[in-house]
Amino acid sequence: MDSFIGGVFLGIIIGVWLSAAFLFLVLPRQKPRTNSAPPEGQIPPAVSAPPAGQIPRTVSAPPKGQIPPAVSAPPKGQIPPAVSAPPKGQIAPAVSAPPKGQIPPAVADDETIDWPPRNKPKPVKEPPCHLSLDSVEAQELFHQLVVMAHGDHAQAERLVCYEKRRNPNASESMLIGNAIYRWQRDNR
């Protein structure tokens, strides 16, 4: 029992030591910042925009230990010069978004993209395939196909309709036989 307690105590000491080593070695040390403010009563120079039509100068970082100049904001209630507002009494034009469910086109070098997309014709649904199952042979084969489809009548009808699209002039018993053959071949 004493060795167990000693092992737990040793594990705790090693865990604390590794945590302290991690914090000391991995986390960067930060130097204390010196706060060198301009002399009392003076305002640091503000960054101003160049006159219209001129390219702005590059802004360099202040020397080490100095506070960078402040960026001036326009007086309260005024819009900065880069943002233009519509004349008083007029509403700004809205940004149009594509219709719901459509994705806007990607920016491309060539102008071959039609936006908004043209109305494409919807695929024509084929008329439903009706099975009459007039003969006893067709009924027995269809029952066999339903059993193979685990009792799913709709799936069995879809399989027969697929065969009818492939061979529209065949008899129902031939179509059901082909559907059974295809089912067996696909599920080997």
Give structural notes.
This protein is mainly alpha-helical. The protein has a domain of 51 residues. It has four helices and no strands. Helix 2 runs parallel beside helix 4 and helix 3 crosses helix 4. The longest helix has 24 residues. The mean pLDDT is 74.
Number of helices: 4
User: What would the principal axes of the Cα set say about the shape?
Assistant: flat
**What's the mean pLDDT score?**
74
Point out poorly predicted stretches: none
Q: How many beta-strand runs?
A: 0
The gyration radius over C-alpha positions equals 40 Å
Give the H and E element order: HHHH
How far is the N terminus from the C terminus? 64 Å
Helical fraction:
25-40%
Largest sheet: none
Structural class: mainly alpha
- Content of β-strand: under 5%
Question: What is the strand and helix layout of this fold?
Answer:
Layout: H1 2-25, H2 136-148, H3 153-166, H4 172-186
Helix pairs in contact: 2-4, 3-4
Brief sketch in words of this structure:
With 188 residues, the protein is mainly alpha-helical. The protein has helices at residues 2-25, 136-148, 153-166, 172-186.
Which terms summarize this structure?
single chain, 188 residues, mainly alpha, 4 helices
